[in-house]
Amino acid sequence: MLSDYKVLVLDDHALQCLQLKDLLEEAGFGRVDTVESAPEALARIRDEGYHLVLMDVSMPGMDGAQFIHELARLNLRPILAIATACSRRMANSIGLMAKENGFAMLGSFVKPVTREQIACLADRLGRRTPGAGLAPQDEAGDAGSLLDRQSVVAALRDGSIQAWFQPKKSLASGAIVGAEALVRWQHRGLGLMMPGSFLRTLREYGLDHELLMRMLEDSLAACRAWRRLGHRIPVSVNLPVSLLDRPQLPDELYEQVTHSGIPAEDVTFELLEDDMTVAPGNYYMGASRLRLKGFGLSQDDFGKGYSSMYSLISTPFTELKIDRAFVHGAAGDEVRAAALVSSVQLGRQLGLQVTAEGVETLDDLQFLRRIGCDCVQGFLISAAVDLAAFNALLANEPGHGAMRDPVPRQAIPY
């Protein structure tokens, strides 16, 4: 219930504070307080606690970036939203800073803030409970101190750490044309754990390879199950590029896939560039050998992190996946929209299948369809679900039970 939320408006203009307070109360928020300086806001949050802070970024004394930095330093974690007269680009930059510091960001608005924007904010927040994150991938709280190496290894072996599947839909047909395998842990004591709670610990233990093989095994079992239901659904598995330092990895993966009876072309490896420790020669050798064996190869999170234009044109990719940072809110943000249009055009000109991640609104979905994007993933379609729930999604597909081929992969020169 929105009435359960405590909201603090931070703006150095008293009139703006009152206008935002009125809009928030009109939208259904029960308690809305206002402050006109960042130091006062810090004190109020520390002493009284607030679920949501709607803040300006251009303020005298302590600006919005400094305010967020101080919140993080004091370990105060309200949900944040930005309302500013600064440029959209500035608002996006501050929002990204907040996310990198572990804050849940509800949205960024350029003043004057409208009743419709506040209604959208309220609608999104109304689906949560106070204290909850905005989406599963935002969950914080690393349980690493509870997870010794032995328990992680045991979970990988007994299937407690397992693959869930997020559907990928074609914008042309509306059909499910693929699935991305995403890791979850059904912990006996802690319940369902999202990757943010354990993935860092797993990597610190040097278990990336074991995780890859676990995810691939689950994905191949899912492919066989889907075929029995009459569906040929290709699957994507995340592969940290540091593992390409293992020259035998492509052979190992190929042996496991072919032994399962699934053709290599139905498996795509998404290259995760979150730790670029691989030797460049090994990277290109590994990527090329994966393609030579018939696997798909996806540039994951394009536009973010280490991904680059040179990597895109020098690696035999079959798919370009655009990071959600460019997708979410693009329909109403001309800066994001420009970057998204350019990325989609680039991917299509290179002969790649273009997939947009993080699609959460119908406006963004329709925008992606207009600009020629091929496929979409995101909470608007479905979150990642276990195999039984994914099978239920397939049961509602048009033509259920009739085996169909996946979206044809563009021929990419080796």
Please describe the structure with a list of short key phrases separated by commas or semicolons.
single chain; 414 residues; alpha/beta; TIM Barrel; 8-stranded mixed barrel; globular
Task: Give the biggest sheet.
Answer: 8 strands, mixed, barrel
- The fraction of residues in strands falls at 15-25%
CATH superfamily of the largest domain: EAL domain
Tell me, what is the CATH class of the largest domain?
A: Alpha Beta
How many helical stretches? 15
Morphology call: globular
Note the topology.
Blueprint lengths: L5 E5 L3 H14 L3 E5 L2 H11 L3 E4 L8 H10 L5 E6 L3 H13 L4 E6 L4 H12 L22 H10 L2 E10 L5 E12 L3 E3 L5 H6 L3 H21 L6 E6 L8 H12 L6 E6 L7 H13 L3 E7 L6 H6 L4 E4 L1 H4 L6 H16 L3 E4 L5 H9 L4 E2 L10 H9 L19
Parallel strand pairs: 1-2, 1-3, 3-4, 4-5, 7-9, 9-10, 10-11, 11-12, 12-13, 13-14
Antiparallel strand pairs: 6-7, 6-14, 7-8
Helix pairs in contact: 8-9, 9-10
State the gist of this model:
The chain is of the alpha/beta class and 414 residues long. Helix content is 40%, strand content 19%.
Written overview of the protein:
The protein is built from 15 helices and 14 strands. It is of the alpha/beta class and 414 residues long. The chain folds into two domains: 2-134, Rossmann fold (3-Layer(aba) Sandwich); 143-395, TIM Barrel. The strands form two sheets. An eight-stranded mixed beta barrel has the order 6-7-9-10-11-12-13-14, surrounded by five helices. Strand 1, helix 1 (14-27) and strand 2 form a beta-alpha-beta unit. Helix 8 runs parallel beside helix 9 and helix 9 packs parallel to helix 10. The longest helix has 21 residues, at 208-228. It is globular. The model is unreliable at 131-145 and 410-414 (pLDDT under 50).
